[in-house]
Amino acid sequence: MPLPSTASAFRLFRPVLAIVSVGWLSSCGLQKDVDVELPAPPAQLVAECYLESGQIPQITVTETVPYLSEPSNELLTDVTVTLTGPTGRIDTLRFGPGQNAGTKKFFTHRGRRRLTIRPGDTYRLDVKDTKGRHLFGSSTMPAIVPIDTVEWKFNDRTGEQRKAYVLTKFDDPAATVDFYRLQVHRRHVNDDPEVDYTPDDRLLNGQRFVLGTSYEFSPNDTLFVALYHLERPYYDFLRSIDDAQSANGNPFGQPAKVRSTVEGGIGVFTILSYERRRVILKE
Amino acid sequence: MVRLRSFRFVFSLLLLLAAPLSLLAQVVLRGTVRGSDGSALPGANVAVPRLGLGTATNPDGSYELSLPTGRHSVQASFIGYQNQSLDVNLRNTQRLDFTLAPGGTELQEVVIEGSGTLEQKLQTTQMGAERITAREAKLLPALFGEVDILKTLQLKPGVQNGGEGTSGLFVRGGSADQNLFLVDDAVVYNPNHLFGLFSTFNSDVVQSVDLYKSGYPAQYGGRLSSVVDVKLREGSRDSLGVSGGIGLISSRLAVEAPIKKGKGSFIVAGRRTYFDVFTRQINKLNADDPDYNPIPDYYFYDLNAKANYQLTDKDQVFLSGYFGNDVFGFNSTQGFNFDFRWGNRAATARWSHVFSPRFFTNTSATASYYTYNIANKLDQFSFGLSSSIRDYNLRSDWEWRPEGGKHVVRFGGSGTLHHFGVGRLQAGSQDQELNIGQDVQYDGQEGGLYAADNFTVTDKLALDYGLRLSGFRSGRNDYGGLEPRLAARYTLSPKTTLKASYALMYQYVHLVTNSGASLPTDIWYPSRLSVKPQRSQQVSAGVSWLFAGGKLLLTNEVYYKWAQRQIDFRDGAQLFVNPELDQEFLFGRGWAYGNEVYLEKKDGRTTGWLGYTLAWTKREFEPQRGTDGINGGRPFYPTYDRRHNLTLVLLHQLSKRINLTGSFVYTSGNPTTLPTGRIAVQDVFGGELEAVPLYPDRNSFRLPSYNRLDLGVVYKLRPMRWGGESDLTLSIYNAYNRRNPYFIYIDEVRDQETEEVLRYRARQVSLFPVIPSLTYNFKF
What we know:
The structure holds two protein chains of two kinds. Chain A is mainly beta.
């Protein structure tokens, strides 16, 4: 069961409203395409970069586009990306679009060496293009908060109805204000997670966290449970993109602006700090 | 803002006003005017035509007339009822009660009664006031056939709704929490069912609703934009009566009877929806389908009860209560239980006492409670979230009418103890490994003292001036201020009057809502050190013209309202279970101005009104608290800003049995925010590439305009053998089936095989197509 600190009014009602509204609107034909003229705001640089110790840094640099424009694979070729480490060493990431075989993520720029990052290390990102646009940001790796236990329990049904919920337990450090992200993937980590929570420790500072799922996993499922310890700006970014997406199509939602971790553009630059466990749900 | 030190000044004023009681008249006739169903008839005329003397009844149907001793023929009249004349031989103060029969056996449901006659409306100093009776609301076509008196108010100039089909009121640029809803003097904090689609007011027990948009009488305070004063009707003092209705989504039943004939009566009324009856059957039929998702249970119900009793010639008491709940429940086959219920409670005990024919008082004690409660359960884990507000209020209102008839002096006071259960969270597991609890509660005390005088200066000039001193204490913080109220009427000619008013209002309790709609999870929050009271001022001026032989009244009012310390929230605000909720608030200012034209007709076979409002509403939140405010500090239009609003309501008596009704609404589209740009986000580990919308300035677009025609027919059936009455009411909501915009969103169009996003498109969502409904109403 997720902690309620991340709940919002609409999230509480979302299943209800979805059931009622989808049934009603679709049955009555109450939706139609309309022409709206949306102004095209000036394009801004967009960066998405997650550094991870032991990995070669990769970054995706794009730019904002008008919402109703056609999807395009056109890439920015005039961008220079540099990464400055805690020692002051500057690495220039070379332009070389590709897809990471492990994460299935697309990237536009890639480093030349694997990084060794320790908690407390700070990196800075600079993205410049020939039009004079300059996106920049920095990130400090949070300490790893270890998972204490991952456990599960099956219901008393049989066959396909037999399902388990999963509990993830960990202890929150008392001295700091902390933000987390719990992801549970089934079979692979390079796909959308089955569970994705972003709690903070406002209600449980210094106490044990128990984050649970519903009865949704089958016997012998292989799960990857990852607990990320987030920087505040990254947490805000995640919340804001969730709010922004929720507001599109929600008459009760208040449109929210994306709260970037970078300046001079839009996007996220952060160092990941997480522990991941692989479990097989044995009965 | 004046910090409260004492109420000494106002007490002095009250004593001064109350001093010359010795000047009261010696021979007085007093009594009540009631309908044959026992309901008090406020605004009825009581007159002695031979002497040219007369008066109008008070809100409780009582009246008093100073008359010379001797024989008099006294006549009582009220629109929709037959006149009644009674002879009296006055020697001393005497009581004379009237019971008016409906105006013709078949006509009673036809005639619209308003706040007295158009002539009275022309002459009153009160501006921006509207009265709707339940009988009026019952005639008009309604969504799903559910008569809703608040939606009838939305058809009046200067009143906007919060969206298609919703009961929320946005009055002259005010937000939904700036309306004071009173039911028999008790505050109702959430007057809505089903996310605002229906109001909590059961039309079977509502006598009348008074709406004040400006020139607020001094006895009212605590909200910035309007007062909605609902009076419930009293049961018949003569005989047992049962009434009710069977509708598309709900049924109603009301029982009334005398407690002691002619002395007192009671009425009990209930209403319940029955969506859940059908959905449970559907769920049962599909119980064996593993892919079937059960439909959640939902229903709401209301229960009203009121009893009144005439203790003596000078004393009357009534007890009134309301209990209503919305219940939403879901039990999944996966062992997940979700129970969500919300509702209001309100109770009033009121004592009316007549000290002398010209001096009387009403004293009431009320209790109000609103709460929502969410309870989830999954196996050994449970999670509960709730919020509430509870009030205990004592108020006393006094009225004194000095000899000469030039003054009507009103004064009184009220005190309220508030308890705010801002947020209570409990999450735990049976093994106690998980046990989270949080409870944020505040107390507050609110008080008000007022004095006002309705002074007829000359035949042409009348003033209604008053002063209200209001205050609020929360912890060690005191807030308060003087609220002057002023209204003036000048008679240009017997058929034309000019009016003007000014009012200052404070609001000490605030609704925490980020939705723009009325959700049950909205939280009430007190003024505290970091959340100062809201304040508004409004000036208005108007002209009224009675023409066509007194059958038509044309009113034009202009207004300008400005408000300080308006509340909104920063982007991404955490509004649930947040012990520092006030840190999410942003404070700004707002202003609204407009012109309202109103033409009404209350006599004859065809009645109704035509209203047009041209209005602007703006809000501004400058950068603060580390944010760039809202919209970068630039002014913006809130979602309830509507430039043009046209309403036409017609009721026509086709025959003695058939009444035709119709209403047409046209409004400008409401402001909305649409994303202009997008970015693509992949997230940490692969997954699907997601488009994230980028929003420009708030509410920088407008939806297409809104228009809708509703039609209705009321067909009175032949009287039942035992004398009962019944009718069939057909309502057609959105008669020409217009797809009015509810909201617009941007959608992805994907390739059906590859799931690849091909393009993006704007989609408009409408809420209600044409909806016919049939309701059977009965009364015996």
